[in-house]
Amino acid sequence: MRAFARLEATNMHKATEFRLEAHPLIPEPLERLEELANDLFYSWDHGVRSLFARIDLRLWQKVEHNPKLFLRRVAQDRLNEASEDRAFLAEYRRVLSSYDAYLEAGPGPEVTEKLDPEQALVAYFCAEFGFHESFPIYSGGLGILAGDHCKAASDLALPFVAVGLLYRQGYFIQSIDAHGQQIARYQSHSSDELPITPVEIDGNVLKVSVPFPDRDVVARVWEARVGHIRLYLLDSNTEENGPEDQDLTLQLYGGDESTRIGQEMLLGIGGTRVLEALGLKPTVWHINEGHAAFQILERCRNTMMNSELGFESALEAVAGATLFTTHTPVPAGHDIFPRALVHHALGRYLEEAGLDFQKVFALGAKDGGDSFNMTSLGLRGSRYHNGVSRIHGGVASMMEGDIWPQVPPAENPIGYITNGVHVPTFLAPEWSSLFDIQAPTWKSELRNPDFWEFIDQIPDYHYWSVHKALKQQMGEYIVRRLKRQHKRNGTGHSVTDRMTRQLISSEKDTLVIGFARRFATYKRATLIFADLERLERILTNQDRPVVLVFAGKAHPKDKPGQQLIKVIHDLSMHPSLMGHLILLEDYDQAMARRLLSGVDVWLNTPEYPKEASGTSGEKAALNGALNLSVLDGWWGEGYNGKNGWGIPPRDTELDPEFRNEEEARDLIDLIEFEVVPLYYDRASQGFSKGWVKRSKASMKSITPRFNAQRMVMDYVNNYYQPASQQGALLMAEGGQVAVALADWKARVRQAWPGVELRVVGCVKSSCPHNGAVELRVEAALNGLSAADVRVECLVSPECTGTHGSPGPDSFFLERESEAEGRTVFATRVQPPYPGLQTLRLRMYPYHESLTHPLEMGAMLWV
Ligand SMILES: *Cc1c(COP(=O)(O)O)cnc(C)c1O
């Protein structure tokens, strides 16, 4: 490798300063460090990261754990020393051989039975990806989840490719000033300090262009390696574009709605073109949140270009191979664009693509309004849909019920897969070493809850010592961060000392409760302060003190979110709470790993049911922290009465203020009467046996269920495999099935408003044990035939709707006769339940090529 120098001019105090960065030569024995720096494998492999840290720890921290920047700035001497240090070289070779072994391993049978690696390919589109703090193209939960999804896909060696945008400035860097104001600062990252390389085809840099109003916007393409898989990122900062277009991919969630729609055109349309240019042929397309939904249009265009199919048939074929995941019930998470903007932004593209604006607009219409909803487009352009927890799946079914207007929301096709986290990324290495000793095969048992019973075999004192060591590391980290923060703000040393005294007191081993996430108002960060006097009394108890640690960013335009930061900041400076409340600035993935593995309790108080899943509590649980949270999102499934504490949400119909008060009181009650007493119930051993028991119950029940490997395998089994097959079926023989299905749907849509259904005779109201009742209905099918519909009787037990009752039994009625445009359907039903039961009769259009029997959203009840 050649050494070279970089010059940068910065203008300060009139005199120009030239910054010079002297790059080292990587000694030959350490050559492969560059390879390691260019694979996001480092984002979850502690071995790789500790190699860099060993060469120069201070520099490693200074470059914020960025391997590429590290290799550019490290002193030549350090590298030379390392290349001659036998212990280092041994570790280096060990890390490389584990890296090589990782890359060599192929997919297991659980994958190959479902997706043929030679043929199938999953394309995963998302607007943000959070792999590691050194690659800041994420803002919060959605990005981290997408990163974890890719990491687990790599671990499973899934045929998988991801597509996103490269934001030069990413999300903002947060500081909190002496008055508690959030200051947002954006920092540009040059491509050579990120783990990406330009994509070239036949020696030429790959570029794709997308028609925008009056011009084409060009994007260059970068590749990020993530172990087995690849992530392609589009970047509009290229010389073909004017300055405004160059800045299209400048910031994540920056700019106005016209920036946003432009970014989404690049992601959806441009992203599809990237895969095409690379010769990749995905068999399943996963749209992760509405931002990427424009890919549906581009895929329709491609299908129409490469076949005889018209728009409706192409849409059927495209949708059958598509999964759409919705991630939040909160309005800010759903892009809604005015009609005029959509017309302006997409007009030229649609014209060139031969797509009709009215038809396209109808795909994004919601509630008959005059705006375009990306979530609606995602749902109408896909036949597989899911929310991200059981509760959220139900909420999404209600919210998006208008897509299937006549179908009861509980039955519409929106399912759920609960989010999980990538264990190697978020499990502290200290725990993973302990597991290596206690249960060496644990890494391949991440979907086997029984296996995790081994946690109980770990001696309590050993278990607690690991937690305590991590907690101490966290304490030191917090002190470091606070010092930096306070120094800049001109806050005195004495304040920093008083603020952290409790936290680092090792003889007290103070109970630490953590809360860190985006400061969005629905997350109710200040709920715990509802009764300040009482909280103060609990936190500052001399014998049983408590420290609260807060961190998080508020979107630069979210003023109420920023107000929450100020409230917490001011409280943290108040003499009465000094030392018991700490607010850290600039929450990112590095801080998340520290806090989540160091705290005793992880707190979450969202407003039910708005926390679609939440994942930070899962990360905390892997590391032995106990969750104390509203029973919303994943915790609604994870809590089992013994593995943390749950706050039951109050009825959403109640006055919000009243709800807040009630839930806040539950929270404080739990802290005062359960959390604090259990934590400080220390006998001679210096820690609480009861606490360790609960912590083990949490770790062993949550780790094997709420991890990304389980999540991705659920996606494979429930969606990727079926969608792969359905897509192939619809496109077989030049798309004949798609054409037939689209024609059939058009016919049904025409006829349905004129269809009628009524009962013939009367339905008996009683029958003897072992008897049966005759059911007979008569339908006017308005030109449809008996084969175009299903007539169904649902029987539910009297107690239906109460917790744990089974769903209704269903029986189909068969065609019995047909005359004068009337079709009679009949069946005999033996009552499936003893005693009283309810019978309901309904009819809906049915075709064997449908993906979901109710996907047309049409249904008629008698
Ligand atoms: C896990 C994580 C999140 C998401 O946390 P929630 O509990 O889902 O809000 C946000 N930011 C970072 C840095 C994370 O690691």
TrEMBL record:
Recorded GO MF terms: glycogen phosphorylase activity; pyridoxal phosphate binding
BP-aspect Gene Ontology terms: carbohydrate metabolic process
Coiled-coil annotated spans: none
Transmembrane is among the record's keywords: no
Assigned keywords, A-Z: Allosteric enzyme, Pyridoxal phosphate
InterPro entries from the UniProt entry: Agluc_phsphrylas, Glyco_trans_35, Glycogen/Maltodextrin_Phosph, Glycogen_phosphorylase_DUF3417
Keyword match DNA damage: no
Domain DUF3417 per the UniProt entry, residue ranges: 26-134
One Pfam entry name: DUF3417
Catalytic activity: [(1->4)-alpha-D-glucosyl](n) + phosphate = [(1->4)-alpha-D-glucosyl](n-1) + alpha-D-glucose 1-phosphate
NCBIfam families: more_P_ylases
Similarity annotation: Belongs to the glycogen phosphorylase family.
Protein name as annotated: DUF3417 domain-containing protein
Species, as recorded: Marinobacter maroccanus
Biological classification of the source: Bacteria, Pseudomonadati, Pseudomonadota, Gammaproteobacteria, Pseudomonadales
